[in-house]
Every structure is written in C-alpha cells, then in structure tokens.
Amino acid sequence: xxxxxxxxxxxxxxxxxxxxxxxxxxxxxxxxxxxxxxxxxxxxxxxxxxxxxxxxxxxxxxxxxxxxxxxxxxxxxxxxxxxxxxxxxxxxxxxxxxxxxxxxxxxxxxxxxxxxxxxxxxxxxxxxxxxxxxxxxxxxxxxxxxxxxxxxxxxxxxxxxxxxxxxxxxxxxxxxxxxxxxxxxxxxxxxxxxxxxxxxxxxxxxxxxxxxxxxxxxxxxxxxxxxxxxxxxxxxxxxxxxxxxxxxxxxxxxxxxxxxxxxxxxxxxxxxxxxxxxxxxxxxxxxxxxxxxxxxxxxxxxxxxxxxxxxxxxxxxxxxxxxxxxxxxxxxxxxxxxxxxxxxxxxxxxxxxxxxxxxxxxxxxxxxxxx
Length: 371
Ligand SMILES: Cc1cc2nc3c(=O)[nH]c(=O)nc-3n(C[C@H](O)[C@H](O)[C@H](O)COP(=O)(O)OP(=O)(O)OC[C@H]3O[C@@H](n4cnc5c(N)ncnc54)[C@H](O)[C@@H]3O)c2cc1C
Known about the structure:
- The protein folds into 3 domains: 3-84, Uridine Diphospho-n-acetylenolpyruvylglucosamine Reductase, domain 2 (2-Layer Sandwich), CATH 3.30.43; 92-249, 2-Layer Sandwich (Uridine Diphospho-n-acetylenolpyruvylglucosamine Reductase, domain 3), CATH 3.30.465; 254-366, Alpha-Beta Plaits (2-Layer Sandwich).
- It is α+β, with helices and mostly antiparallel strands.
- The strands form 4 sheets. Strands 5-6-10-8-9 form a 5-stranded antiparallel sheet.
- It contains 15 helices and 15 strands.
- Helix content is 35%, strand content 20%.
- Helix 1 packs antiparallel against helix 3 (46-58).
- The protein starts with a helix and ends in a 5-residue tail after the last helix.
- Flavin-adenine dinucleotide binds at residues 29-30, 64-72, 75-76, 85, 106, 128-130, 134-135, 137-139, 141-142, 144-146, 234-235, 239-240, 361-362, 365.
C-alpha cells in the first residue's frame, strides 16, 4: 500500500494499523487459508466505518469486514483492508420484551447477548458452537445456526432491521419498515423473479438450512426486505454496523434422550424416525469422538453414566426436547430404537454429555476433519 493510500485512511480519524504484527494477526481465521492484508481498521462509529470504507474505495483498496474470525472457509481474510467490527461495537440497547427485540452492535458476541437476555427470560435462538467468540455481525453475514436449527431456524430468520455501510460509504437502514435503496430492491426483485422456477426446484419448501449465500429465496418470499439478501452475503455487499434482532423466550422444561447404536448408518436412519417428536436438536457422536474422552478425568463421570466402558456402541444420538419433554421422552423410550436408550433430566449431566460433541468438534476442526 502506498503511503498516500495509508494517509487517506488515517485521515478519517478511524483507528487503523498497518504494522507487520497486526497484518500477521489478521492474516488468518479459523480456515486453512492465509492472506496478509495491507492493514486493519477498527471503526468505533457508523460514521467512522463509512469514512474508512469510502477512503479505501477512493484508494482502490478492497475491504473485508470481519468479526471474530471463526469462519471456516477463509471469508474473513483478504488482501485489502480488514474492517474489524468486534473491538469497539459491543453495545446492546433497545431491549423490548413486549415486542421481543433488541439492538446489538455488530461486534456483540453471542454469549454476551445471551448473558444479557437470560435474567429477562429470553435468549437469541440460533446457537453456533463458537458462541463464546462469534459476533452477531459475523453470524448475520454467514447466516449461522446451530444444533437447535429445527426450532429456531437460522440467524436470517431473526433479523428485523440492519444498519449497513455500503461500498461507497453510504450508511443505510434496511428492513421491512425502511424504504431505502429502492433502485437496488427493484433490480434484485427482477433478477430473483427470473430465477424463481430454478430456485423452487433446487430448494424445496421446508428446507431448514442451506449453506450461506445471498438469501434470494427468502427475498422472493418477502421482496421488500433487503435484510434477506444481506444475511448470508459473507460481507460482499455491505458492512453491518448494527442490527435489530428478534429474541426468543427461554424454554421452560428441557430433557435429553440418548440412543445407542451399533452403526452410524442406523443412527442416521433413526433421525428420520424421531422428527415427528419435534426435537429441539439431534446431535450425533461416533466412536472416534467417544474414544477421545477415554482416560480424561473431566469426562469420566459422563462415561460411567453412559456405561461406555462396559457396553460397546459405535454411535450415539443425543436428542434434546424443550417443553412437554417428559411426555416426548417416554414416547421415545417406548419406540425401542437402537441398542438401548437412556433418559437424562439433570441439566448438569446433560451439559457434560453435550460437551462430548463440542469438544470433539473442536479437536477435529484443528485437524481439518469438520467443515
Ligand atoms: C469449532 C467451530 C465450530 C463452528 N460451529 C458452527 C456452528 O455450529 N454453526 C455455524 O453456523 N457456524 C459454525 N462455525 C463457523 C463460525 O463460527 C460461524 O459462522 C460464526 O457465526 C462466524 O462469526 P464471526 O464473528 O467469527 O465471523 P467472521 O469469521 O469474522 O466472519 C464471517 C463472515 O462474515 C463477514 N462479516 C463479519 N462481520 C461482518 C460485519 N460486521 N458486516 C458484514 N460482514 C461481516 C466476514 O467478511 C466473513 O465473510 C464454527 C466454526 C468453528 C471454528
């Protein structure tokens, strides 16, 4: 980057770093890729984000918005200027319990939001496994979701409105109650309608989750709502500065059913047979993952409870229920699926069992086994 380009970016007043250490720190994310950026900017306000993005555009420098960098596919790194939203934009405001909504800065971390909402009896539904790091800006841009996707859907389903910074520095509010960007909406609607038949064929109704990408099928259902296109756009259309989000009531009653199988194939088939019970989540643990907990003090109580050392199995399904859990667990038990079933109602043990899955996921992602 030339010194003139750097000066233009610094003149915006935004905290921006071009030193080697910062560039190396932001050259990686949770993916296998590495690209050294020319610098990193840390805007504190929408105005600063606007000025810095405009200055980068004027200098011919591409920008990559970034949250916590936990994305697995290399979309939080880039060769231009990284615009980092997680350092300063962590404000949570406008909690409205009657409407079931809250406003967050793009850098608010999911656990931070849930800690804030819990005393009020609410939570943010989509539960990414990286909840201690992932930012709401990154979750919206990736349209993230977690194990409880069957009941909560994905992040896009929870966005009411967004405050965004466009590539030319304009700050806009988008959502059903905002009339901004009329030309863009009309153009997108035309494109989306032209592809509607192909979309209907490729994405059948009822598909709960597909990987990120522009939410064109969501836009087709609600043409006036540009948040549907922004959610899943991976930072390619605009930077998200803040968001108004829908929040959900915390579940009343919870219960876990564990089903043990002699093969992974049987476990996969059983998930289909369980859907009518409307589980909040079904998670799968296979033998390689279970074996990693062997000899670890932290997991011994859970291993004993599941009788893993005395009764061999190749695969376990963890089936979680919210509300009417006892009734649905008893139906599950009566179906006699797999080798055996275990019902857990203690939250503490349940949390430890679920951490089998997450701990294993982390280990595997380090070796590139999970994508
Ligand atoms: C062990 C592990 C487990 C995971 N589990 C899950 C899971 O259960 N479910 C799931 O969906 N994902 C999962 N992920 C992927 C990732 O954690 C999530 O997608 C997360 O929501 C990304 O948030 P982030 O703040 O880290 O975003 P980043 O990685 O920083 O960015 C992700 C994308 O969003 C864009 N972006 C970030 N902030 C903004 C902004 N303010 N404005 C515009 N664009 C922005 C970036 O340019 C990039 O394209 C997992 C990753 C790991 C490593």
